[in-house]
Amino acid sequence: MPSHSQPSPLVRAAGGADAAAIAAVLGRAFDDDPVWRWILPDEASRVRRLTGVFGILLRHVHLRHEGTEAAGRGPDVEAAALWDPPGLWRVPARAQAAQAGPLLRTLGRRVPAALRALGEIEKHHPPEPHWYLAVLGTDPPAQGNGLGGALLRSRLDRCDAEGLPAYLESSKERNVPYYERFGFRVTRELAMPGRGCPPVWLMWRDPNSG
Protein backbone atom coordinates (compact mmCIF):
# COMPACT_ATOMS: atom_id res chain seq x y z
CA MET A 1 0.00 0.00 0.00
CA PRO A 2 1.25 3.54 -0.72
CA SER A 3 2.42 5.50 2.29
CA HIS A 4 0.67 8.78 3.04
CA SER A 5 3.14 9.90 5.71
CA GLN A 6 4.89 13.22 5.31
CA PRO A 7 8.39 13.02 3.84
CA SER A 8 11.13 13.57 6.42
CA PRO A 9 12.82 16.96 6.40
CA LEU A 10 16.04 17.06 4.41
CA VAL A 11 18.72 19.33 5.90
CA ARG A 12 21.76 20.36 3.85
CA ALA A 13 24.51 22.95 3.84
CA ALA A 14 23.54 26.05 1.84
CA GLY A 15 25.71 28.01 -0.57
CA GLY A 16 25.58 31.02 -2.85
CA ALA A 17 23.23 29.32 -5.31
CA ASP A 18 20.63 29.09 -2.51
CA ALA A 19 20.77 32.76 -1.50
CA ALA A 20 17.77 33.98 -3.50
CA ALA A 21 15.54 31.08 -2.44
CA ILE A 22 16.52 31.40 1.23
CA ALA A 23 16.01 35.19 1.20
CA ALA A 24 12.53 34.74 -0.29
CA VAL A 25 11.58 32.11 2.32
CA LEU A 26 12.85 34.27 5.20
CA GLY A 27 11.14 37.37 3.81
CA ARG A 28 7.79 35.57 4.03
CA ALA A 29 8.62 33.89 7.35
CA PHE A 30 9.38 37.19 9.11
CA ASP A 31 6.40 39.12 7.73
CA ASP A 32 4.63 38.66 11.09
CA ASP A 33 7.72 39.18 13.27
CA PRO A 34 6.92 41.87 15.89
CA VAL A 35 10.26 43.72 15.70
CA TRP A 36 10.43 43.65 11.90
CA ARG A 37 6.80 44.83 11.72
CA TRP A 38 7.83 47.78 13.88
CA ILE A 39 10.89 48.49 11.73
CA LEU A 40 8.93 48.07 8.47
CA PRO A 41 5.36 49.17 9.23
CA ASP A 42 4.20 49.28 5.59
CA GLU A 43 2.32 46.01 5.00
CA ALA A 44 2.40 46.25 1.22
CA SER A 45 6.20 46.41 0.90
CA ARG A 46 7.35 44.47 3.98
CA VAL A 47 7.94 41.05 2.40
CA ARG A 48 9.80 42.58 -0.55
CA ARG A 49 11.99 44.68 1.75
CA LEU A 50 12.65 41.79 4.12
CA THR A 51 13.62 39.55 1.21
CA GLY A 52 16.10 42.24 0.20
CA VAL A 53 17.50 42.53 3.73
CA PHE A 54 18.02 38.79 4.09
CA GLY A 55 19.62 38.60 0.65
CA ILE A 56 22.13 41.28 1.70
CA LEU A 57 22.87 39.57 5.03
CA LEU A 58 23.35 36.19 3.35
CA ARG A 59 25.76 37.48 0.71
CA HIS A 60 27.74 39.89 2.88
CA VAL A 61 27.75 38.10 6.25
CA HIS A 62 26.42 34.59 6.77
CA LEU A 63 27.18 32.46 3.71
CA ARG A 64 30.93 33.05 3.96
CA HIS A 65 30.91 31.47 7.43
CA GLU A 66 29.65 28.18 5.95
CA GLY A 67 27.19 27.65 8.81
CA THR A 68 23.98 28.34 6.86
CA GLU A 69 21.69 25.36 6.33
CA ALA A 70 18.53 24.86 4.28
CA ALA A 71 15.72 22.37 4.78
CA GLY A 72 12.74 21.10 2.84
CA ARG A 73 10.55 18.07 2.37
CA GLY A 74 12.01 17.78 -1.13
CA PRO A 75 14.66 19.64 -3.13
CA ASP A 76 13.06 23.08 -2.66
CA VAL A 77 14.15 25.39 0.16
CA GLU A 78 11.29 25.65 2.68
CA ALA A 79 13.24 26.70 5.77
CA ALA A 80 16.69 27.99 6.65
CA ALA A 81 18.98 28.57 9.62
CA LEU A 82 21.73 31.20 9.48
CA TRP A 83 24.42 30.18 11.99
CA ASP A 84 27.70 31.97 12.68
CA PRO A 85 30.63 29.99 14.16
CA PRO A 86 32.36 30.88 17.43
CA GLY A 87 34.11 34.25 17.24
CA LEU A 88 32.51 35.26 13.93
CA TRP A 89 29.16 36.72 14.96
CA ARG A 90 30.35 40.34 14.87
CA VAL A 91 30.03 41.91 11.41
CA PRO A 92 33.45 43.31 10.40
CA ALA A 93 33.73 46.94 9.30
CA ARG A 94 34.44 45.92 5.70
CA ALA A 95 31.19 43.94 5.49
CA GLN A 96 29.27 46.76 7.19
CA ALA A 97 30.54 49.18 4.57
CA ALA A 98 29.70 46.81 1.72
CA GLN A 99 26.12 46.35 2.85
CA ALA A 100 25.44 49.99 3.80
CA GLY A 101 24.32 51.09 0.33
CA PRO A 102 22.11 48.07 -0.40
CA LEU A 103 20.51 48.31 3.07
CA LEU A 104 19.78 52.00 2.55
CA ARG A 105 18.08 51.24 -0.77
CA THR A 106 16.09 48.40 0.81
CA LEU A 107 15.06 49.98 4.11
CA GLY A 108 14.91 53.63 3.08
CA ARG A 109 13.99 55.98 5.90
CA ARG A 110 13.77 53.07 8.35
CA VAL A 111 17.55 52.51 8.32
CA PRO A 112 18.14 54.51 11.57
CA ALA A 113 15.42 52.54 13.41
CA ALA A 114 16.82 49.24 12.17
CA LEU A 115 20.40 50.13 13.09
CA ARG A 116 19.38 51.28 16.58
CA ALA A 117 17.52 48.01 17.18
CA LEU A 118 20.34 45.84 15.84
CA GLY A 119 22.93 47.87 17.75
CA GLU A 120 21.09 47.38 21.04
CA ILE A 121 20.92 43.62 20.45
CA GLU A 122 24.62 43.48 19.56
CA LYS A 123 25.55 45.37 22.75
CA HIS A 124 24.23 42.47 24.84
CA HIS A 125 25.76 39.66 22.78
CA PRO A 126 27.71 37.30 25.08
CA PRO A 127 31.50 37.30 24.60
CA GLU A 128 32.06 33.59 25.32
CA PRO A 129 32.74 31.28 22.34
CA HIS A 130 29.46 29.89 20.95
CA TRP A 131 27.51 29.12 17.81
CA TYR A 132 25.14 32.01 17.06
CA LEU A 133 21.74 31.34 15.50
CA ALA A 134 21.25 34.69 13.78
CA VAL A 135 18.09 33.71 11.87
CA LEU A 136 15.74 30.71 11.76
CA GLY A 137 12.63 30.77 9.60
CA THR A 138 10.20 28.51 7.76
CA ASP A 139 8.02 29.46 4.80
CA PRO A 140 4.51 29.93 6.26
CA PRO A 141 2.87 27.24 4.03
CA ALA A 142 5.49 24.71 5.21
CA GLN A 143 5.28 25.48 8.94
CA GLY A 144 4.32 22.65 11.28
CA ASN A 145 6.24 19.98 9.36
CA GLY A 146 9.29 19.77 11.65
CA LEU A 147 11.63 21.74 9.38
CA GLY A 148 12.72 24.23 12.04
CA GLY A 149 13.31 21.43 14.53
CA ALA A 150 15.38 19.48 12.01
CA LEU A 151 17.53 22.56 11.37
CA LEU A 152 18.02 23.16 15.09
CA ARG A 153 18.96 19.55 15.80
CA SER A 154 21.41 19.51 12.89
CA ARG A 155 23.60 22.19 14.45
CA LEU A 156 22.87 21.57 18.14
CA ASP A 157 23.92 17.93 17.84
CA ARG A 158 27.30 19.19 16.61
CA CYS A 159 27.44 21.77 19.40
CA ASP A 160 26.94 18.95 21.90
CA ALA A 161 29.59 16.79 20.23
CA GLU A 162 32.08 19.68 20.31
CA GLY A 163 31.10 20.90 23.78
CA LEU A 164 30.06 24.33 22.49
CA PRO A 165 27.18 26.54 23.69
CA ALA A 166 24.65 28.18 21.37
CA TYR A 167 22.94 31.57 21.51
CA LEU A 168 19.99 33.28 19.84
CA GLU A 169 17.62 36.21 20.18
CA SER A 170 13.89 35.56 19.85
CA SER A 171 11.77 38.50 18.74
CA LYS A 172 8.57 36.46 19.20
CA GLU A 173 7.51 35.66 22.75
CA ARG A 174 5.51 32.63 21.58
CA ASN A 175 8.72 31.08 20.19
CA VAL A 176 10.44 31.13 23.59
CA PRO A 177 8.88 27.84 24.82
CA TYR A 178 9.74 26.26 21.46
CA TYR A 179 13.43 27.08 21.88
CA GLU A 180 13.31 25.99 25.52
CA ARG A 181 12.39 22.49 24.33
CA PHE A 182 15.79 22.39 22.58
CA GLY A 183 17.66 23.35 25.75
CA PHE A 184 17.77 27.15 25.42
CA ARG A 185 16.95 29.33 28.42
CA VAL A 186 16.09 33.02 28.60
CA THR A 187 18.93 35.10 30.03
CA ARG A 188 17.24 38.46 29.54
CA GLU A 189 14.11 40.13 28.21
CA LEU A 190 15.69 43.06 26.40
CA ALA A 191 13.79 46.34 26.14
CA MET A 192 14.43 47.87 22.73
CA PRO A 193 15.08 51.51 21.80
CA GLY A 194 12.39 53.40 19.90
CA ARG A 195 8.84 54.16 20.98
CA GLY A 196 6.69 51.06 20.71
CA CYS A 197 9.43 48.65 19.63
CA PRO A 198 8.66 45.18 21.06
CA PRO A 199 11.18 43.43 23.33
CA VAL A 200 13.59 40.67 22.36
CA TRP A 201 14.36 37.54 24.41
CA LEU A 202 18.05 36.61 24.67
CA MET A 203 18.52 32.84 24.95
CA TRP A 204 21.56 30.70 25.77
CA ARG A 205 22.07 26.95 25.52
CA ASP A 206 24.82 25.04 27.29
CA PRO A 207 26.05 21.91 25.48
CA ASN A 208 24.36 18.69 26.49
CA SER A 209 26.96 16.29 27.77
CA GLY A 210 24.46 13.55 28.53
UniProtKB/TrEMBL annotation:
Residues 61-208 form the N-acetyltransferase domain. The lineage of its organism: Bacteria, Bacillati, Actinomycetota, Actinomycetes, Streptosporangiales. It comes from the Bacteria. InterPro entries: Acyl_CoA_acyltransferase, GNAT_dom, Trichothecene_AcTrans. Pfam families: Acetyltransf_1. This is GNAT family N-acetyltransferase.
